[in-house]
Design goal:
Blueprint (H helix, E strand, L loop, with lengths): L1 H22 L2 H5 L4 H28 L5 H12 L4 H8 L3 H19 L1
């Protein structure tokens, strides 16, 4: 359950970028006075707010990890959208060791979630 929630959030970062691109669309910028454009923009902004609320939930969840290293790698992966290779280079661990750390963190979060 926790792993699925975290992985789903990881994909939301991509979704935010996509929605921000939609807000930069020339139609939205050129025709802000049209009702359909205002509705479209409103829908995009609402979705971005929903994603931000989910981000806060994920941050609160990650902050429950006791081990500072686990918190750091979970933040890099799920908040900063870093790849396992990037995280491994930063913390000095192999990707396979990171996998073990992620499993350990997931298990800890599932115990906390109860």
């Amino acid at each position: 359950m926790i792993r699925e929630k975290l992985e789903a959030y990881h994909m939301l970062g991509i979704e935010i970028d996509s929605f921000n691109g939609m807000l930069d669309d020339w139609v939205v910028k050129k025709y802000p006075h049209l009702e359909s454009v205002r509705n479209y923009k409103g829908m995009i902004l609402e979705r971005i707010e929903q994603i931000k609320r989910k981000r806060t939930d994920i941050i609160n969840l990650i902050n429950r990890l006791e081990d500072p290293l686990l918190r750091e790698i979970f933040f890099m992966r799920y908040i900063d959208q870093k790849s396992n290779d990037e995280i491994g280079r930063k913390v000095g661990y192999s990707v396979s060791h990171l996998s073990r750390l992620f499993r350990k963190g997931i298990e800890e979060l599932e115990k906390l979630k109860g």
